[in-house]
Amino acid sequence: MKTRSAGTVSDLPELFRKKSENLYRHHRWYCSEAVLLTFNRAFGCELPDEVVVGLASGLPEGLGGSGCVCGAVSGAAVALGLVVGAAKGLRSRKDVRAAVAELHERFKEQFGATCCRTLTRKVRHDPKLHFDHCAGVTGAAAELAVRILLEQWPELARRANKGYLRKTEGALSGRLKKAALLLP
Predict the structure, then answer these.
(1) Rounded to an integer, what distance in angstroms lies between the CA atom of residue 97 and that of residue 83?
(2) Keyword annotations for this protein (predicted)?
């Protein structure tokens, strides 16, 4: 992992929230993809974007469109494992499971459910409302995950690349970059 200066820990959750939302909104990555891309790049885990998207591509819309576990929560769970596993090694598996359980509980407390079908029930009829709702949920899942990560492993804050997290893009540039990644 590459090490980056993070400055204060207190602004990292907000930066992770905004970055994940930006990737969802303007790059049009799905919820799980946006969260996992954010963590991979911000913590310098160095997985190629194609691998990250491939890992997360079956998680959106409640595990492959089934409406079950929210893709943003699933992506955040994988992100916790990626970052902690890369930093702490295989012995961290039990700690990662505990962190993911905490993520599940906090998310459920904040939103009342972790099921995509339940979370989107009131906005499914309106594509714009649905999109905006899921963008917010995506950002919230990333924010919760990084809070848990930094509470349990505060030393990881030094690895966060704030320059990457602060950089936002508009819809056109985001979609062009995504299209370039998707070209053969």
Answers:
(1) 13
(2) Membrane, Transmembrane, Transmembrane helix
